[in-house]
Amino acid sequence: MKRKSPPAKGEWFTPGGRIFIGESIEEAVKRTLNEETGLEPVKIEQKGVMNHIWPEVHTVTVIHRVEVTNNNVTLNHEHNDYKWIDAITEDLHPYLKRMIEIGGIFTE
Predict the structure, then answer these.
(1) Which listed site, 46, 65, 69, 87, has its alpha carbon 20 to 30 Å from 104?
(2) Do residues 42 and 69 make contact, with C-beta atoms less than 8 angstroms apart?
(3) For the residues of the chain, what is the DSSP string, one character each?
(4) Cβ contacts of residue 8 below 8 Å, gap of 6+?
(5) What is the pLDDT tens value at each position of the chain, 108 positions in all?
(6) Is 46 helix (H, G, I), strand (E, B) or coil?
(7) Domains of the chain in sequence order
């Protein structure tokens, strides 16, 4: 998804966000995916964890592989474009490339 705001403004990146108090990681994945894409996950598999140190914030990312019911994306206000990928491409943000590598997203 192409982000409209920092961090990674104007870059291809994944959906993501905060975990609310009392919310499990899996609940946060389901909520965030639905809010940002309109997609409903049918399978969620945790694949790894990494830190992102941006100029304005330090985040901890829990990497997941998610299977969805369909591929009909509805973007919210946080993104202005999306694409499906099946390999790492040069135009992806370096942190996103690293997340894909750590998670083994295209190797399994």
Answers:
(1) 69
(2) yes
(3) -EESSSSSTTSB-----PPPTT--HHHHHHHHHHHHH---EEEEEEEEEEEEE-SS-EEEEEEEEEEES-------TTEEE----SS--TTB-HHHHHHHHHHTTTT-
(4) 54, 93, 95
(5) 999 998 889 999 999 989 999 999 999 999 999 999 999 999 999 999 999 888 888 989 999 999 999 999 999 999 999 999 999 999 999 999 999 999 999 886
(6) strand
(7) 2-103 (3.90.79.10)
What is the pTM for the complete model shown?
Answer: 0.88
**Residue 108 is encoded by which pair of tokens?**
């399994």
**Quick one: tokens of 73?**
């994306």
Encoded tokens for 72: 């009909």
